[in-house]
Structures are given as structure tokens and as C-alpha cells.
């Protein structure tokens, strides 16, 4: 065997130089395979594996079960099964119902247990053992922040589930992480004007706040928003996350001069503190000549169900509600309702949307490479997924969309019909600058493809 | 003054729950010598007896209302409880409304059976094993029981309200000549305290004034001698285990309206109840009750904003702090007997 080497001459050097220069000068956006360089867990066969990391045990197991239902539905729709759900109403038409980039979608699941270390362990296992190309899900900000950091280090995309703390896309934001769910700031900004209209500008608020990250950001957001409209904050008290009986925290409220109680609690904390507050007759109380009021900044239907009749008439905010009448919401509720027999929760909605958005971004980028997906999602504007026009802001990977202010329904017709929409707060009212003090610190950094 | 009074009242109902659970724990420890970490699960099962009876009484048949539609646009399915058709709408609704008090009767046989099965089926095999083994097996049993409950009832809390007649609060402020609305206390929590006091008195009376109780007390003091007298003390101790299970179950039933039951509620109470037993004195029934109320009230005081502002985090450690101080000054607990857990 012999090799014939062409002699190096001036012409060949010039030609190679020109070709190389042209290749370097070509913007990567024109090259659909620009991101085809190696990356972690690159799918090589006919399937692609997604990792659904949800609480399957622990206090948020019911919420996790609803997330898993939504993910399974999303996988069906991505693979062209079922009625297609929100794929037909989604403004982007990149998805064809043939999986993602022609590869059939498969999934593995992990159990976060709503514990950061367990969530990281299950995400790590799905990435390393099962070859998951993307991790999504969760029902807690602590978990979201921990798993998001892990995904950044590992080099896969993290599509956050239910996480409401400002920090997820604030000081703890990461280039590989994206959040569709709204946040504490948005809750405060949406709620404050409604509260002013309903209860007036001269109010004295007492905050009971769950003693962890999400509680702090929610307290700060609601406090600043309401104070800006004239309310006074009388007292803020931290309550242990493990507390079950809040009577010792409720009774001092009776003796303060406050006429509003803000419960910055979620899950079991919220169910118990609200139940205790109602038992202690707070809602029947007259203070400063006004009816005493209770507010729950972040509502979920599953929580409302736990608190029963105590939620009646109590204001809060939510990311989405099944009673919305836009085409996207109707398509999702129909699809989910026909498959499971009951309407989806907001946790189900946000996780379904995240799975669809990820798949769409891969299609548009033409690759599963995390850096390509990041580029496709940054600044992406879309509609038809249940929240009206939405922007995935490039600066912090936070979705900006309308926020719902809801109220506990006085006469529910079923166990799912517990909240009524009071106002759809337009996105402009809940938008903030990327360097807003409530989101200060931290940096996105650069995307990590993991290889 | 009014703030102090309120925190004492707050401590009383929490203390009632601690005292009832700790009483059962002490009964089991005193009679069988078993450290039962599944006792919190019995409290939780009691609360779920209330949930179950509420669901049984609410069993419904479905009719279609063509006038209204559900969330999918189909004709609405309307559920009507059977009790409302059998006894009329008003009486039927009242029966469902009173499901928690009715669950007291419903739970007694269930809890007694659960207690018997636990003792005969598992715990009796661990009598002669070290306490560490007993703790491990009963803790494992507690996890199994709570997972079973979660499988059937889900992880979410289930609202189980008290009868309407007990909704609202009593104004102690007016009673004491203070401003109205200053010291108010929910009716159901008063009921809970009185109920707990009644149960505790009944258990003490049973042990003090019946022959059966006398034999049990004798067995607690010297099991071997009672056995040598030809008395089958084991049978009586099995009965005491069932009784302890019933006491924990009743505490759970009545607690259901205070905090919506969830599968994890037993664990929330268990660790604190053990501290209560240790502070009260291992094997001492009056000590368990005294320590239950004492720690309940102290926990309430430690949660006051003024106290937390002075000593941040005190509300989370107060019980353990008191336990350390008491064990340092009175190593056998407040009313502990010499010789218990000292061999």
C-alpha cells in the first residue's frame, strides 16, 4: 500500500485558508448541525431518554403523581399518540408527532422525596445510568436549585417543575436551567393591586413565613408589593418547616394590631396554618373597624383540597388553572381529563409545558446538544400553551407571562372546583428588570454540554 | 397577661395529645418492657378512622344532572349520600357532620384489633431482644403502616371538620372581664382537652380501682412474682397493649379536626412523645401526663414572637433543652421510679 502526498503549494494553502475562513465566518445559526459536536448522553439509537424527577414519596407525592401523569401525556403527544393535546395550539409548529428529531421519546423516573440530596442522587442516577439527556420536574425550590446545579455540572438541560422561589432564576440561576413556573415576585406584583381594591390601602399585615428559602423570598415579595401600595407590615414571624400546629403562632396575631394575616406557607404548612387561623376565629374578627382577612400568596388546588372549606374567599395567586378558556388550556384539560378522569393541577400543566418546550427547542435547534437547546430557548416567544403570550427571557431563563389571582370558591361544585379566577394579571405588571434587587447575585454562566 | 394566658391554653391542647400518646407509650413500656416506636402510627391510624368513617357515611350514589355540565362538558354527575336518602336530607347531613364524634365508637374496636395484631403478630417475638432491636422493628412497622395509609388515602392532608356545633371560638377575655376577642379559644380544642382529661382519668381509675388494674400494676412492679402466684400476666399485658393502642387511636380521632390528617402525622408526634416519656420518667404514668402538659405549654411559650426575637430558634429546641436540663438534675425524670431501665 502506498500513500501519494500532494505537494504543498501556494494555491492549495490559499484555498484551504479561504475555506477555513468562510467556515469560521458563517454564523452558527445557519448550520443546523452546528451543535452536533460531542455532548453528554448524545442519543445514538432510535430513541431519546428524558428523566422525570418528581416527588413519588413524601409530603408532595400527590403533586408528584400529577406531574408524572402530565409527563406521560406529553410523551404520548410527542410520539404522535393520543389527541396531541397542546401541540395543536402551540404557536411553534416544529414538533411533528414523530418524537424529537425523529427519535421516539422514552423516559425514566426518579423520586426526589422533596429532599435535595435524594433529588440530586436520583437525577445523577438517571443521567449516568439511564443516559437521560434532560432532567425535569420537582415540587420544591430547594430541590430545583440543587438539581439545577447538578445538571449544570453534569452538562444536561434542567427544565424546572413547580418552583416558586425567586432564587431559582435569581441568585441560583444556571445556564442549563429553565423555569416556566412563575415566582414570588410575580405573586406579590399580581396580588397587591387586587388586595388594595378588595381591602383598601390602609391595612396592617402580619406575616407568618415558612423558615426556608422559598418562604423568605415570598415574604419579601408580598411585603414590598403591599407596602408600595400603602399597607403597613406589623410583624414578620418565621415558623419551623416541621411545624404542624400553628396555634402558638396564630394567637399573637390576635393581640397585634394587624388586620391581615399573610401565610407564606406551602403544602402541609399552609393547610395546617390556614385551618388553625380559621379555627381561632380570625376571619370573624373585626380589627380597626375592618374585617380581618387572610391571604395565601401561592395557591395550589391540591393544597386547597387539603384545607377544605377554610379556603373560601381567601385570595392567592397561581400559575395556571384548569378553568381557563383559552384554546391551549381547553385542549390540555380535555386531553388530561379524558385520560385520567379529572382536571389537571397547575403542577401538571407546568411540567407538561416544560416537556413540550424542551422537545420543541431540540427540533428548532436541530440537536439535543444542551448548548443548542439553550440557544433555542433563550428569548423564545410562544403562545398557545395556556398562559397567553410568553417569553423565555434570555437573561435569567425565566418565563414571563400573565399571572392568575384566584380566590377560594364559595360554592364549589366538585372537589376540583375549589378556586375561582379573580383576575388575569397582564405580563407587563409582573415583569421586572433582570438586575432587580430581589434577584440580585449569581450569574447564568455558560452552557455546559458535558463532554 | 392575656398573651401568657393564651399560650397556656395553646399548650393545653398540644399537651393533651402528647400526654395521651405518652400515656400509651408508658403503659406499653411499663407492662411489656417494649419501646414502641410504632405508637405514633397508632395515633395516625386513629385519625384515619375518623377519615374512614366520614367517607363511609358519605358513600353516595350517582345521578346525572342534564342541566349542568362537568369540566369536560359532559352532563354533571351528582353524588347523593345514601344516609341522606335513608334518614332524610337533614338527618343524613347531621350524621355526616357528626362523623368525628361517632368515630370514637367506630375506632375503639378497630384500634383494639390493630393493637392485638401488632402485639401477637410481631412485638411478642421481641420481648427478650435488646431495646435497640425493639426500636428498629417498631420503627420499621411504623413506616410500613404509614405507607399503607398513604397508598389508600394519598399523601395530601384530608380535611375532617368538627361538627358545625363546635365551630367558632369561646371568648375567655369576656369571661375574665377583659376586652372581647382578646383571648379566644376554639370550641373543639376545649373539647379535646376535656376529652383527654376524661380518658386519662378513666385509665388511671381503671388501673387504680379494678382488680384487673391492680394485677397489672403488680405485674409492672414485679412481673416474676406475679407470675409465680399463678396469674397469667402475659394475657393481661396483651390487653394493656390493646388499651394503649385504643388510647392513642382516640387521641388521633379527636385530633383530626385540629389538623387535617396525613400519613405522616404520627411521626410528627412520636419523637416529642418519647421525650415526654423520658422527661416524665420511664414507666411513670403520672409523670407522662405531667410532662406532656408541661412540655406542650413550654413549646407554646417558646413560639411567642418576643421569645423567639430574644432567643432565635428556641421554639425548635425548647423541648430537647428542657429534657437535657431535667435529665441532668433528675436523671430518672420528673417522676421516674428507681430501677426502670437501669439494669
Please provide a written account of the structure.
The complex is a heterodimer of chains A (451) and B (343). Chain A is built from 13 helices and 17 strands. Chain A is of the alpha/beta class. In chain A, β1 (47-54), α2 (61-78) and β2 form a beta-alpha-beta unit. In chain A, α3 packs parallel to α4 (141-154) and α11 (346-365) packs across α12. Chain A is globular. Chain A starts with 9 loop residues before the first helix and ends in a 21-residue tail after the last helix. Helix content of chain B is 68%, strand content 7%. Chain B is mainly α. The mean pLDDT of chain B is 88. Chains A and B meet through β7, α7, α8, α9 and α10 of A and α1 and β4 of B.
Provide a compact summary of the structure:
The complex is a heterodimer of chains A (451) and B (343). Chain A has helices at 10-25, 61-78, 116-128, 141-154, 184-199, 213-228, 247-255, 268-279, 301-307, 327-340, 346-365, 370-377, 427-430; strands at residues 47-54, 104-111, 134-137, 157-160, 177-179, 204-210, 232-239, 260-264, 286-287, 290-291, 293-298, 315-318, 380-382, 390-392, 399-400, 403-408, 419-425.
Beta fraction of the residues of chain B? 5-15%
Helix content estimate of chain B: 55-70%
For the secondary structure, the number of strands of chain B is 4
Remind me, CATH topology of chain B? ABC transporter involved in vitamin B12 uptake, BtuC
Q: Return the average pLDDT of chain A rounded to an integer.
A: 90
| CATH architectural group of the largest domain in chain A | 3-Layer(aba) Sandwich
According to CATH, the homologous superfamily of the largest domain in chain A is: Response regulator
Element-by-element helix/strand order of chain B: HHEEHHHHEHEHHHHHHHH
Amino acid at each position: 500500500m502506498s500513500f501519494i502526498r500532494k505537494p504543498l503549494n501556494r494555491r492549495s494553502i490559499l484555498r484551504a485558508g479561504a475555506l477555513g475562513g468562510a467556515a469560521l465566518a458563517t454564523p452558527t445559526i445557519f448550520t443546523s448541525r452546528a451543535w452536533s459536536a460531542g455532548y453528554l448522553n448524545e442519543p445514538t439509537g432510535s430513541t431519546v431518554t428524558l428523566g422525570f424527577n418528581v416527588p413519588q414519596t413524601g409530603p408532595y407525592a400527590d403533586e408528584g403523581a400529577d406531574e408524572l401523569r402530565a409527563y406521560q401525556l406529553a410523551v404520548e403527544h410527542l410520539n404522535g399518540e393520543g389527541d396531541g393535546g397542546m401541540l395543536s395550539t402551540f404557536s411553534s409548529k416544529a414538533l411533528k408527532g414523530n418524537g424529537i428529531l425523529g427519535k421516539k421519546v422514552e423516559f425514566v423516573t426518579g423520586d426526589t422525596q422533596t429532599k435535595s440530596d435524594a433529588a440530586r442522587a436520583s437525577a445523577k442516577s438517571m443521567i449516568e445510568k439511564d443516559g437521560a439527556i434532560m432532567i425535569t420536574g420537582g415540587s420544591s425550590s430547594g430541590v430545583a436549585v440543587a438539581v439545577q446545579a447538578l445538571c449544570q455540572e453534569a452538562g444536561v438541560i434542567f427544565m424546572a417543575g413547580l418552583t416558586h422561589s425567586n432564587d431559582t432564576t435569581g441568585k441560583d440561576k444556571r445556564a442549563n436551567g429553565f423555569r416556566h413556573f412563575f415566582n414570588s415576585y410575580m405573586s406579590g406584583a399580581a396580588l397587591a393591586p387586587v388586595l388594595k381594591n378588595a381591602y383598601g390601602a390602609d391595612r396592617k399585615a402580619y406575616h407568618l413565613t415558612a423558615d426556608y428559602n422559598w418562604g423568605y423570598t415570598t415574604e419579601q415579595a408580598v411585603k414590598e408589593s403591599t407596602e408600595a401600595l400603602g399597607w403597613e407590615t406589623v410583624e414578620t414571624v418565621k415558623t419551623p418547616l416541621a411545624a404542624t400546629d400553628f396555634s402558638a403562632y396564630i394567637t399573637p396575631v390576635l393581640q397585634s394590631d394587624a388586620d391581615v394575616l399573610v401565610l407564606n406557607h406551602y403544602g402541609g404548612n399552609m393547610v395546617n396554618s390556614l385551618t388553625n387561623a380559621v379555627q381561632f376565629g380570625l376571619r370573624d374578627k373585626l380589627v380597626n373597624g375592618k374585617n380581618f382577612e387572610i391571604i395565601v400568596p401561592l395557591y395550589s388546588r391540591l393544597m386547597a383540597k387539603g384545607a377544605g372549606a377554610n379556603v373560601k374567599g381567601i385570595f392567592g395567586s397561581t400559575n395556571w388553572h384548569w378553568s381557563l378558556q383559552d384554546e391551549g388550556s381547553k385542549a390540555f384539560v380535555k386531553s388530561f381529563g379524558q385520560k385520567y378522569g379529572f382536571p389537571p393541577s397547575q403542577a401538571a400543566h407546568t411540567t407538561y409545558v416544560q416537556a413540550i418546550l424542551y422537545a420543541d427547542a431540540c427540533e428548532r435547534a436541530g440537536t439535543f446538544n444542551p448548548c443548542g437547546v439553550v440557544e433555542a430557548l433563550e428569548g423564545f416567544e410562544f403562545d398557545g400553551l395556556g398562559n397567553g403570550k410568553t417569553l423565555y427571557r434570555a437573561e435569567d431563563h425565566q418565563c414571563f407571562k400573565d399571572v392568575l389571582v384566584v380566590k377560594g370558591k364559595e360554592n364549589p361544585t366538585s372537589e376540583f372546583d375549589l378556586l375561582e379566577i379573580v383576575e388575569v394579571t397582564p405580563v407587563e405588571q409582573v415583569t421586572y428588570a433582570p438586575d432587580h434587587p430581589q434577584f440580585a447575585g449569581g450569574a447564568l454562566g455558560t452552557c455546559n454540554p458535558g463532554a | 397577661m392575656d398573651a401568657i394566658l393564651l399560650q397556656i391554653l395553646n399548650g393545653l391542647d398540644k399537651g393533651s395529645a402528647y400526654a395521651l400518646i405518652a400515656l400509651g407509650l408508658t403503659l406499653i413500656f411499663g407492662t411489656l418492657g417494649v419501646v414502641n416506636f410504632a405508637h405514633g402510627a397508632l395515633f395516625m391510624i386513629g385519625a384515619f378512622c375518623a377519615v374512614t368513617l366520614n367517607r363511609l357515611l358519605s358513600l353516595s350514589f350517582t345521578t346525572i344532572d342534564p342541566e349542568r355540565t362537568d369540566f369536560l362538558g359532559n352532563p354533571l354527575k351528582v353524588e347523593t349520600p345514601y344516609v341522606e336518602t335513608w334518614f332524610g336530607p337533614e338527618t343524613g347531613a347531621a350524621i355526616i357532620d357528626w362523623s368525628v364524634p361517632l368515630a370514637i365508637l367506630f375506632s375503639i374496636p378497630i384500634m383494639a384489633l390493630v393493637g392485638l395484631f401488632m402485639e401477637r403478630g410481631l412485638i411478642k417475638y421481641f420481648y427478650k431482644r435488646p431495646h435497640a432491636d425493639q426500636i428498629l422493628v417498631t420503627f420499621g412497622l411504623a413506616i410500613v403502616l404509614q405507607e399503607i395509609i398513604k397508598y389508600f388515602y394519598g399523601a395530601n392532608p384530608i380535611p375532617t371538620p368538627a361538627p358545625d356545633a363546635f365551630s367558632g371560638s369561646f371568648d375567655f377575655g369576656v369571661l375574665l372581664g377583659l376586652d372581647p376577642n382578646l383571648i379566644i379559644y376554639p370550641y373543639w380544642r376545649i373539647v379535646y382537652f376535656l376529652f383527654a382529661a376524661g380518658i386519662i382519668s378513666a385509665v388511671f381509675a381503671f388501673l387504680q380501682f379494678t382488680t384487673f388494674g391492680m394485677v397489672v400494676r403488680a405485674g409492672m412492679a414485679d412481673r416474676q412474682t406475679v407470675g409465680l402466684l399463678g396469674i397469667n400476666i402475659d394475657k393481661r399485658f396483651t390487653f394493656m397493649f390493646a388499651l394503649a393502642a385504643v388510647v392513642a387511636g382516640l387521641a388521633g380521632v379527636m385530633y383530626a379536626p385540629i389538623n387535617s390528617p396525613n400519613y405522616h402525622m404520627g411521626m410528627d408526634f412520636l419523637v416529642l412523645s418519647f421525650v415526654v416519656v423520658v422527661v416524665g420518667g420511664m414507666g411513670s404514668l403520672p409523670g407522662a401526663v405531667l410532662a406532656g402538659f408541661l412540655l406542650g405549654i413550654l413549646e407554646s411559650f417558646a413560639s411567642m414572637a418576643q421569645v423567639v426575637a430574644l432567643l432565635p430558634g428556641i421554639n425548635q429546641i425548647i423541648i430537647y433543652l428542657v429534657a437535657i436540663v431535667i435529665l441532668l438534675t433528675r436523671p430518672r425524670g420528673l417522676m421516674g421510679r428507681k430501677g426502670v431501665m437501669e439494669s
